[in-house]
Design goal:
The chain is built from 5 helices and 6 strands, in the order βαβαβαβααββ. By secondary structure, the chain is of the alpha/beta class. Helix 2 packs parallel to helix 3. The chain starts with a strand and ends with a strand.
Amino acid sequence: MYDFIVNPNARSGLGGRIWKELEQLLKEQKAEYRVHFTKYQRHASRIAEEITTDGEEHTIVVLGGDGTVNEVLNGINELSKVTMGYIPMGSSNDFARSMKLSKDPVTALNRILSGSETAYIDVGRLTFRGHSRRFI
């Protein structure tokens, strides 16, 4: 089961339009998935937290920009139980570039669904004045 966290407003609404195209592919491939649309700032964190509160393993796919990836990362309860995929839709996509991920949404989705390309990444934590945030 894939949980897609989609920022429909990424790159001036391109995220929502691309999602419609990708959803057709998911249906054609009979992939099991749920979709969660972000509605406000930090909503992706809340969604990721809700998905991962059960302590089970999950595959979360982010469709958005670097900010959405960071929000999801900060909402996950147990990092070791989550596999995260990323379909870059932001304006800069620094994370995607550093990981050499495809800019093409269909290619990115097919790579995620095949599960053939995975990488472990280091996650850091910054704590300042009682506030803590993860970063990659």
